[in-house]
Amino acid sequence: MGRRHLRATSSDEHRIIRSAHGTDRYYARWARRALRHWERFADEWNVPLFYASGVLWFASAAAGWEADSEATLRSLGIPVERLDPAAISARWPVIDPAGAAFGLFEPEAGFLMARRGVAATVAAFQRAGGAYALAAVRPGRSDGHRLLDVVDQAGRRWSAGTFVFAAGPGFRSSSPRPWATW
Ligand SMILES: Cc1cc2nc3c(=O)[nH]c(=O)nc-3n(C[C@H](O)[C@H](O)[C@H](O)COP(=O)(O)OP(=O)(O)OC[C@H]3O[C@@H](n4cnc5c(N)ncnc54)[C@H](O)[C@@H]3O)c2cc1C
Hints:
Elements: E1 14-17, H1 25-45, E2 50-51, E3 55-59, H2 65-76, E4 81-83, H3 85-91, E5 102-106, E6 110-113, H4 114-127, E7 137-139, E8 149-152, E9 157-159
Antiparallel strand pairs: 1-6, 2-6, 3-5, 4-5, 7-8, 8-9
The structure holds flavin-adenine dinucleotide (FAD).
């Protein structure tokens, strides 16, 4: 279907990028690192890719995922603010925080322009000498341990030292709506 097609999960208009992930320190650091890369790419390529709108989480209980996230982010030095419901209303009068125990605000989080980012990445790859081709392929020869080539519909063989199949995170034959589990 080609780069940045609408059914790829990475190429809708935008995606939230934030670091909160409960007690998971790895994810928090990883998201932060990815954000720095996207900011650098946006500067280098002169394409607006990231909008630091901040991300506000609503915690329904004092203890739980959001409280764990706050502790993790603070321990990693990632900016985060805890807001009581009155503070949420004062800051964002359009939001009714009824039912929220507190809000967790990540001021440096925001959203990435996903489709634009995929297109800009492909363009940068091509400028660096990479080749982009669109083809339906099936596995070709193997040396018994390693795939040596893939074969396209015209019968042409594409060989490489390493193949990466990036078929997306959610495709499971047993689940018609893979994102329902996220
Ligand atoms: C509705 C929704 C909202 C989301 N919101 C967020 C968010 O706000 N923040 C966030 O961080 N993450 C979010 N995610 C998750 C995030 O978008 C994905 O984890 C990420 O985009 C995965 O990128 P990818 O390149 O691995 O996969 P994809 O972009 O999905 O690319 C996989 C590609 O492989 C192709 N493919 C699959 N099978 C085959 C096959 N057999 N043969 C050939 N091609 C194949 C697909 O067509 C697709 O083009 C969201 C996901 C969804 C669905």
